[in-house]
Amino acid sequence: MGTTATRMFNLEPTPYQLDEVASRQVKDRLGIIEARVALLRRSGRLTEQTVRDYYGEKRFEQVAESNALEGSTLSVGETELAVLKGITITGHDPAFTRDAIALDRALARIAELARDVSTPTNIEQLHEVHALLLGDRPGAGLFRKERVLIRGARHTPPKTWEQVMSQMTLWQQWSAENGTLPAPLRSAVLHAWLTHVHPYVDGNGRVARAIGNLELIRAGYPPIIFKKKSRDQYIEALAESDEGGDLRSFLELVLDRVEGALTGLEQSAGRRQGYDPVLERIRLIQEKQLTIWETSVKLLASIIEHRVSQALEPAGGTCTIKQFDRPLDLEDYVEVCLGRNVPRSWAFALRLEIPGLPRLEKLAWIGHRSARMVQVLNQEGGPSLFWSRRNPEGFPKWVGDGAASPYAAEITSRAGNGDEWYARLGNDSIERVQTTELAGRIAEALVERAGLGV
Predict the structure, then answer these.
(1) Rounded to an integer, what distance in angstroms lies between the CA atom of residue 284 and that of residue 330?
(2) pLDDT tens string 413-453
(3) What is 3-270's CATH number?
(4) Tens of pLDDT along 314-357?
């Protein structure tokens, strides 16, 4: 770890490091976030009541999504019913109802702990929250004495109670000595470090997410939600921090969620309460449009994978595409239609491998349409697909592809029409193509770039 990075954020003795380039980028982004929070406070919109109202709106979504990362199948509405009524939801494992009630109770305690701004997060608070999460199950609020393995992970947590206690003592020490660091950074470090140590037999992920939010709420930020749709990103980012102390991807993910929560808080602060049947009908139409968009993107990705695989087969090459589940929810979809940024929403990632040549990796992500595309589509806003490539500097993990984008820098389809696409080429001209033809052109460009090693 470079000394400049260490002095800037004081990450010692955590297992993590940020090089000087990443440290500067993170500092700049944190500055923008903190300026946004300060503006909300100066305008009188970021009040304690506003945060409480926003937390109330997101209460059951936060419980449902956190538990969904651990396998729960309860929807937000079912979670609300389970928590408020205490009844087992038909068709679901009864344990999911128990977990929903327990997590809601733990998060309520988190909100109470956050009122004490003078006491940094410590092991005593951690045990209390964990005990609420596990209830009367064995190991509640107690560090484990046996070895555990994280399913599907290459990282092996500390094996003995003594090793766990040693790591958690350092965790508490760092928290106490760095209380003035920006809350999003503290949230990311304490969250990732907890999952790295895995100090409990069960409930590590849920308690880590709760403690991460304690840091944010204590500093006046709204709580953040890691949604099931982003589970792959979440797990991959934590794996990178586990394996090499590389916190960059996870910190980037936390900052994305903080920005998204701030957007939600801004909307909550300015939104009037009450049911509006006209708006509900509009939302129904938007949901149908979003479903068509998702289906068309998945079909496009599948055809690209098939075409590239066919082209590479004679050379012994392979193409694999990983599609991400629901990269946009309805709130995100509305935001991009309005021409606003949303937290990074990955559509699919592809990898081309040809023996003897460098691996080619691309990420297709969703953002709002460019000004040029909006102009061509008669001022109709909406989602577009853009391309990124692996960042050779390492942070952020992906950077815009620019001139290296396969065939087109931006592709989109009109609302409700998934058969026809509009592609913005490198010279800013727009072409209209059908799905199969578009997939073929992208596949051809990918194969060409793979052969050139770019």
Answers:
(1) 10
(2) 998 888 899 999 989 999 999 999 999 999 999 999 887 54
(3) 1.10.3290.10
(4) 999 999 999 998 889 888 999 999 998 887 689 999 999 999 89
In the chain, domain spans: 3-270, 277-452
54, 280 contact by CB (below 8 A): no
At 170, which amino acid appears?
L
